[in-house]
Amino acid sequence: MFILDLKSRVPIYEQLKTRTLELIMAGVLSQDSQLPSVRSLARELGVNPNTIQKAYQDMEKEGIIYSVAGKGSFVNNIIGVKEKEKEAAQTNLKQILSQLKRCGTDKAQILSLVEEIFAEEEHL
C-alpha cells in the first residue's frame, strides 16, 4: 500500500504524506480508517521510525489524520481533506495559467489544453 522511492530526492516523510493523500483521494483509505502504527510501518518500509512519526505529525497538523491516545492514527474527515487538496490544486493551476499567459499562450490554446486533458480522462 505504501510504496516509497528510497533513491528519490523527495524526503521519505514527504513521499509518505503524498502517498497517503493519494490513497485517500482514490478511496482506498476511507474516513476513520486506521493507519499502520509508526513502528510497524517503519519495519515494513525499512526506514527509521522517526521518519514515519514526522510524516504522521505533519499530516495531523494539516488535518489529514488524527490520533487517539493508545489507539493509533486514523484518516480524518475525507471531505475536508479533499477540499484542501482541491484548493491547493486550484492555487497551483492559477499560478501555471498566469505563467502560460506571461509566456504568450492565448486563451484558445489554454482552453484547448483543458479540453485535451478532459478527453484523456474520459478514455481511461
Topology:
Elements: H1 12-25, H2 38-45, H3 49-61, E1 65-68, E2 72-75, H4 78-102, H5 107-122
Antiparallel strand pairs: 1-2
Helix pairs in contact: 1-3, 2-3
What strand order characterises the main sheet? 1-2
CATH class of the largest domain: Mainly Alpha
Broad shape: elongated
- Mean pLDDT across the residues is 90
Q: Which sheet architecture does the biggest sheet show? A: 2 strands, antiparallel
Question: What percent of residues adopt helix (DSSP H or I)?
Answer: 55-70%
Describe this entry's structure for a reader:
By secondary structure, this protein is mainly alpha-helical. The protein has 2 domains: 12-76, Arc Repressor Mutant, subunit A (Orthogonal Bundle); 79-122. The protein is 61% helix and 6% strand. The chain has 5 helices and 2 strands, in the order H-H-H-E-E-H-H. It has helices at 12-25, 38-45, 49-61, 78-102, 107-122; strands spanning 65-68, 72-75. A two-stranded antiparallel ribbon has the order 1-2. Helix 1 packs across helix 3 and helix 2 crosses helix 3 (49-61). The longest helix has 25 residues, at 78-102. The two termini are 22 Å apart. The model has no long low-confidence stretch (mean pLDDT 90).
Defining traits:
2 strands; two-stranded antiparallel ribbon; 2 domains; single chain; 5 helices; mainly alpha; 6% strand; Arc Repressor Mutant, subunit A; 124 residues
